[in-house]
Amino acid sequence: MTGRRDATPRLAIAAKPVLAHPGHDGASRDLLTTAERQRLAPIASLVRVERGATLFRQGAEAAAIYDIADGVLKSTVLRPDGTRAILGFFFPQDIVGLAENGLYVTTVQAVTAGVLYRMPLPALERLLKRDSELDHQFLIKACHELRRAQLHELTLGIAHADIRVARFLDLMRQMQPNPAASSLIDLPMSRADIAEYLGLTPETVSRAFARLRRTLAIACPNPHLVRVLDEERFRAMAEAGTIPPPARQAGTADRPPRSPRPAARLPVAPHGAVVPAMQHQPGEQAEHREDRRAGDGE
Q: Please, where are the H alpha helices in 185-274?
């Protein structure tokens, strides 16, 4: 009989490559040794959060930092004009709760249900003062989070919405456990969250996804999953910032050209009769809608 596996997630802090160079396996590097995790364990308590729950709010007194064992969180900030912006998404082995002058600088909410390790700041500060190596590892992790924030700012500076979305997809791919081994990208967040993170409207994000699908670089089996179909095209968008032209569907080059549709003859009504307005067929209405969508590039 096999032994029962412990379902309790381990306390772990890792560094993940952000937009890794070609050839990198994309795997995260655990910053904590087993001994360091054991030293952290006595001050850490397990916390479970439901989807949509608020972990802490911007401006509140910072009481603890959290190591994500499972689930996805988002960090938001309230602008002076009252609007909200998403600054980042956080994944397992990320830490959240860094503060300034004793106050949280962002609001953190759960995108999915999650499991976190809560470490009270006073106890953590005492531990880090005694353990210089552990303090160094936390500093490395903070630098990785700063680098991710800088890349977010660079993404917001890109004018083309399609490139912003492609780079976001690449970032989400690298946050997965084994990004180099899978063509699938999980998107636990909504299109509205993606739009808020990228500084776009939800409609613009939806149109960008549609245009990227027409290049045949990606497919979207459902709203929370993206499949990379053509790695070269995807890399051209995410890294080089170039948009390939829409790909022609297989077999379209061999199709004979369609003969022009004869002009419709309008009925001539008898004098004094009322002619009803012409009704478009459902297929024609769909074509008009598609033409408007295809021509609406932002």
A: 191-198, 202-214, 231-235
